[in-house]
């Protein structure tokens, strides 16, 4: 594994988890939104992540933007398999999907968005699930910060060793 790619992979993980926390925050903020610009109540959103082969993505970007040589790990062992499993993978946000589950209906005949029977459609957001997803995203973010700090500590130790 290339040394600097650990920084890149951690930064992609940080970015993906931060985006997930933004979507969860929007869900919590709109838990009682009964009217949107698209019409109807707010629909819960969820983030779908996608694993990305970091080396392949980096080389494709180098080939398209520059006239430089392909990235190769200088520490690769030539006796190892060419495509060892698992490959170095990173993560990116693939898409944001809407939760198509049923809306919550509450009897409030005086509400301006009530239907003719007096029921108001509220978003399909469960605050307990949103908070558990937020805690999970926070933990993943913290794990990426820890991995980044460990890689930084290793780099600092290597520099100290080279100083003599």
From TrEMBL:
It holds the Pfam family Flg_bb_rod. Residues 117-160 form the Flagellar basal-body/hook protein C-terminal domain. Transmembrane segments: none annotated. Residues 11-35 form the Flagellar basal body rod protein N-terminal domain. Its main location: other. It comes from the Bacteria. GO terms for cellular component: bacterial-type flagellum basal body, rod. Keywords: Bacterial flagellum, Cell projection, Cilium, Flagellum. One of its GO terms (biological process) is bacterial-type flagellum-dependent swarming motility. It is found in: Bacterial flagellum basal body. NCBIfam families: FlgC. The basal body constitutes a major portion of the flagellar organelle and consists of four rings (L,P,S, and M) mounted on a central rod. The rod consists of about 26 subunits of FlgG in the distal portion, and FlgB, FlgC and FlgF are thought to build up the proximal portion of the rod with about 6 subunits each. Belongs to the flagella basal body rod proteins family. This is Flagellar basal-body rod protein FlgC. It comes from Sulfurospirillum halorespirans DSM 13726.
């Amino acid at each position: 594994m290339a040394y600097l790619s650990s920084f890149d992979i951690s930064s992609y993980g940080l970015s993906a988890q931060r985006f997930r926390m933004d979507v969860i925050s929007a869900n919590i903020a709109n838990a009682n939104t009964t009217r949107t610009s698209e019409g109807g109540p707010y629909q819960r959103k969820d983030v779908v992540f996608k694993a990305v082969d970091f080396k392949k993505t980096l080389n494709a970007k180098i080939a398209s933007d520059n006239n430089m040589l392909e990235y190769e790990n200088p520490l690769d062992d030539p006796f190892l398999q060419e495509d060892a499993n698992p490959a170095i993978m990173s993560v990116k946000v693939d898409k944001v999907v809407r939760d198509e589950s049923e809306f919550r209906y509450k009897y409030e005949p005086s509400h301006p968005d009530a239907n003719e029977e007096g029921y108001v459609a509220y978003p399909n957001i469960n605050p307990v699930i949103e908070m558990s997803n937020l805690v999970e995203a926070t933990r993943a973010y913290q794990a990426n910060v820890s991995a980044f700090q460990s890689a930084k500590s290793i780099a600092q130790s290597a520099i100290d060793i080279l100083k003599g």
